Structures are given as C-alpha cells and as structure tokens.
Here is the input.
Amino acid sequence: MRHTGRLKLMAAGVGMSLITLTTAGLALSNNAFASQTMTPTTYLNLRSGPGTGHSVVTVLSPSQPVTTTGNTSGAWYEVTTSDGQTGWASGTYLKPTGSSGATGGSSSAPTASGSATTTSAVNVRSGPGTGYSVLTVAAKGTTLPTTGKTSGGWTEVIRDGQTAWISTSYLTAGSGGGVGVPVAGQIRTTASLYLRTGGSLDDDYTGVLPAYSVVDTTGATTADYTEIIYQGERRWIATRYTGAASASGPSTPSTPAATGSVYVNVGSLNVRATSAADGAIVATVDRGDELKTTGVTSGDRLQIIYNGAVRWVFKAYTSTSKPSTGTASPLTSSVSLPGYAPLQNNAKVGVQHVIDTYPAIRTIGGWRASSAYSSDHPNGRAIDIMIPSYSSASGIQLGDKIAADFQANAARYKVSYIIWRQKQWNASYPERGWRQMEDRGSITQNHYDHVHVSFKA
Here is the structure.
C-alpha cells in the first residue's frame, strides 16, 4: 500500500493549487501568439506532452515567465522557460503578460453588457460548473460587470479585467430583477440522499440532503434522478426517495410503554420509520447512545421509542451493555489491521468506527515506516480502508459511502483530509469540495482500491 498522504501542492492538470487565485485562470485560445510571454497563476506542472498522462519535466512557480512556441493541443500550450526547458502547460493556469515578435498583442479585455450583484458570499469559478477551480470568494453585495453569456445555471462575470463564472442563483441583476435558476416545483425527500453533480450514480456527490427536506426542482429528470436547487446550485437526487412537497413526514403512531433499553454498539446507527430494511431514515444515533425498547422485533429489526415515537433499528448493532466510546481496542477483530498498534488515538477511533459500521471491510492499513507523499502514515495519523472489489459498482458505492461518512463527520472524528479515487477533500477547506489529484502512476497510489483518511494529531 505505497501511496498516499498530503498532496504536493501543484496545479496544471492536477486540479489543485497552492494559493487561492485572485484572477480568473485564463483559458487561452487556439490562435495563440507565435511567441508570447505568459506567467503561471499558481504552481504549475510543466509536462513532456499535452496532457496529465505525460511526465512532469519541472514545476513552474507563480509569476515565473515562460514563452509560448506557437504549438497548442486543446487547452495545452508548449512553452519554454528562461533557462531553456521546453514542455507543455495547461492554459487554464497561464495568463498573458505581454507579446513579442508576433501579430496581435495582449488579449482583448472582455466587454461588459450589464451588471449583477451577489445575494450572499459565493464562489467565483474559472468555468460554468462546480468542477471548475475556485478563483476567489465574492462577498455578499458585490456588484460585478456581466458579459451577457450564460451556461446552464451559471453567469459569466468580469473580475479584475478577466472573465469568471458565478452560480446564477446567487446573483441579482443590477436593476434588482432576479436572474436565478427557474423553479418548476417542489418535492419532499423520504430519506437522507446523496447530492450529486449529475443525474446518474456515476456522478460525484457533494454532500447529503437530510430526510424530509423540501426542495425546489428545475423540472429536469433522468431515468432515476431529479434535478433540484440546493443552496443556490443545481444538484441531483434519487427520484424514488422523493414525494409530493405537501406530504408530511413519517406518521407518529401511538407510543407503547418502554420495557427495556439497549445501547448502540457501532459508530453510527440509522433509526428508521418502519421495520423494512429500506424504511425511511428519520435519525442517526451514535455509539454508546441508550435506546428505549418495547420488546417487539420484526426479523432482524428491533422496535424502539425515539423522541416519543415508535421507530426501528437493526438489532445486531445494539447491545444490552454500554460499549466503550473512548480509545478503540479492536485487536481481537477478524479484520486485518497491519500497523494498528503505533497509530495515534484519533486514527484508532477511526479504525473502530469502520469495523463497527462496515462489516464488508476486511483490511485497514495504518502505520508504516515511510511514505513518498506525507508524514501521516509514519506518524500514525492515517489509515487506508481497503475496498473489496474496488472496481465494481458495489465496491465504488461502498468506498463512496465510507468517504462521505468521514466527510460528514469530520469534526467528530477529527479528520484532516480524505483521498478516494484520485480525488481529495480537505476538512480545512470544505468549500473547495473534492479536487482532482495528480496521477501518481498506479491503482493504489491513486487511491482507487482504498479510502485514505488522515486525522489531526
């Protein structure tokens, strides 16, 4: 399990930057000047060819001048450094600083056709979608010129003389007229649902929408998903777990008398409205929580009284004695735990949570003597949760679930960052979401076969 850790902070096909950009990352046109001086807007990989699959020749520093050769390939530009090194750089992270020996000159300034004002603090991005890098955050009440261009639910604006994009839902036209995403209706969720960037299971998720939330819809649907408006941005949720907005939450049956109690003996346990395995989730309880029972069971489900109502939980995840909620001690577990003993306490608690909550996981790596990318493993602050059948749909779904679990409970488990399927999420910058990681050369090093979780000391 050689791989992981804190990323080298580079961009250029890496999708990550060392600094927060203050001007738009300019995507240069294919009719670039034959010889033009450019500067990177962040630390930038110079590669041997036009794409992230090519090897890194060197790393350019922010504002380090380079000269274009005139050769382009898509959004990639062949450039030469001042010391004579030639390679390819992503035009997204380059900006022109002048021109020499060629027709044209510096890029023409964008033309404003109107203006818009932000209705709250909002990300300013390099392109029309959440997959594009965040250039800066515009404060509530910021008025920016607009170019008149839109794309889906995004509006092109002008900031610092360059074009950028803002979610239209967070903008009001200069005259005060709304320019938000059109609302087609409303629906209510019947379970906690992943918020996805597109209308399929293969699309990335950005968070979890609580059960019984009422949200606006855009009218767009796929075979299994419905597009909604969540916190001003378009997201997709599973249609089968939705209903009419007028529908109420789960009914509250008459409450029988409690006959006993049990304790939650896993990291977290879903409380459901019915005894069905897919019954609507109405709450989540934590390890060590006491639950009042009625003495009624249905298959593998146990009836409890929760907040004055009859609810159901998975019986196997409860016990009659209160479990320890402190330092994990899973050494008797049948799960393989290489490098467990030297782990710091926060990492051990994370291991215990995985063992308690995800029985399909059979191997969790921990401490090791060295790591090519960070000191987290050698310092006992990181674990690798190996995903069985990691390339299958079920394996990817399991990894997604575990990554989302630690993301949603980052404060509780003192998570520093998570890596899964060549993407990283940092608890210090949650607004940046999941960001693409550089290609490290193998399935394991790119974290396709395991979820890496680093913890705070």
Observations:
- The mean pLDDT is 76.
- Residues 184 and 218 are 5 Å apart (CA to CA).
- The longest strand covers residues 143-151.
